Amino acid sequence: MSKRTAAQVALALALALSVVGATAQTLPVEELERRFVAADLEGKIEAVRSATEAGSAAAAIHLRALAFVADNLALLGPDRALADLAIEASRGARAAGAGDAAPLMLGLFTAFEEPDVDIALLEALGTLGRGYPDSSSTIEAWLAARTEALGSTEAPELSESGERSRLLACAAALGSLGAPSAYGELFELFAGAFAAEDGRLKMAAAAALASLAGDYRGFLSGYVASGPAARRAAALSAGLDYEGLPDEDRGMLAEKALAGALDEPGTDPVGREIIRAIRFRAARELRVRRWQRASPLVARHFYDILDGWNKGHSPVSELIEAIDTLGSMGTNEAAQTLAIFLQFANSEIERGANFDEDVAMAVIRNLGQLGDKMAFDYLLYMGYLPWSETVKRAARDALLLLRW
């Protein structure tokens, strides 16, 4: 090559890689298109890679490259070089905002065995596929097949196969597209046993679910109240583990979950344990939110734990937690429930029986926090009974907090 020719090529490439306005880009992009048409497969990859730097002006090159891949796939098969061309063209189309490329990408999706091709296509379709309804449905169908296949595998290895990265890209794409039809498949991804130990994958699915159009809380509410225990637990986690869920939605979801757990406690031992965990998680969320609407449910939860404690089935820590949850409700109903329980505790001490002092202190503390004057007689009476001085002092302090 002569010095003059080398200089011309260098100038053309330098212009193609600079973004200085449409007029300055016209010639280099045309040159890159010419190079793409004339080059072999490796040269086409380099031409597309170079065109990516030209931005939106090079959209036609990326469309041409994707069409070339589609036209030659049957002839060449899932060749590695062809796969690399699909990757570079997808990235370039995404950078150029080439929405017209979406149908071509949908045709290529899953055509290659390598996960990196699907990942590049998914990343591009999440942006470029919004104007094409088939984009979400095509990805949803693929996800349905993958979750079913992975669910039938005893211990699928997601990281070594590249499957994990592909599933992450899939969740992000569906979340970006935002179609309500993706709720079911994304929830299956979140709830899948293969993703149980993969926190990042579960959070990606939850975030995608929350990004869809429609009623996210309403969708999850349909799962948390009834059905298989594991699915109910997954639905509650999908809502509460996602930090972007509004406080109002979190409270309502936890309320629904607690109601379902109390009404349908499970039939088999494993299911009962899962639903018991749902109860405590929902109750903790309600306590944090001070969700007064759930006060009747929290009282039912308390009485159930109290019954278990009396029978030796529930530890004292669970009873104290249930008492604290009642105290957070701030309702007359909660104060009445705790006042009646304190009356029972006083009667036990009066007849000479023992009563757990930590439980008594929890009741006193929460009655003081509630400030309802109906507790006055029961707190006052503690001073005349053989409670410890610590308990009596706590009762006197609580009396001062009652509102009149």
Structure, briefly:
By secondary structure, the chain is mostly helical. The chain has helices spanning 3-16, 22-38, 41-52, 59-76, 80-96, 102-108, 115-128, 134-151, 158-161, 163-177, 183-191, 199-211, 216-224, 229-240, 247-263, 269-289, 295-310, 316-329, 332-350, 357-370, 376-381, 389-399.
N/C terminus separation? 99 Å
- Strand portion, in percent? under 5%
Shape: elongated
- Helix content, binned percent: over 70%
Secondary-structure-based class equals mainly alpha
Helical segment tally? 22
C-alpha Rg, in Å?
A: 32 Å
**DSSP strand tally:** 0
The overall pLDDT average reads: 88
Order of helices and strands: HHHHHHHHHHHHHHHHHHHHHH
Quaternary state of the chains:
single chain
Contiguous low-pLDDT stretches (5 residues minimum) are: 3-27
Largest sheet: none
What secondary-structure arrangement, pairings included, does this model have?
Elements (H helix, E strand, L loop, with lengths): L2 H14 L5 H17 L2 H12 L6 H18 L3 H17 L5 H7 L6 H14 L5 H18 L6 H4 L1 H15 L5 H9 L7 H13 L4 H9 L4 H12 L6 H17 L5 H21 L5 H16 L5 H14 L2 H19 L6 H14 L5 H6 L7 H11 L5
Helix pairs in contact: 1-2, 2-3, 3-4, 3-5, 4-5, 4-6, 5-7, 6-7, 7-10, 8-10, 8-11, 10-12, 11-12, 13-14, 13-15, 14-15, 14-16, 15-16, 15-17, 16-18, 17-18, 18-19, 18-20, 19-20, 20-22
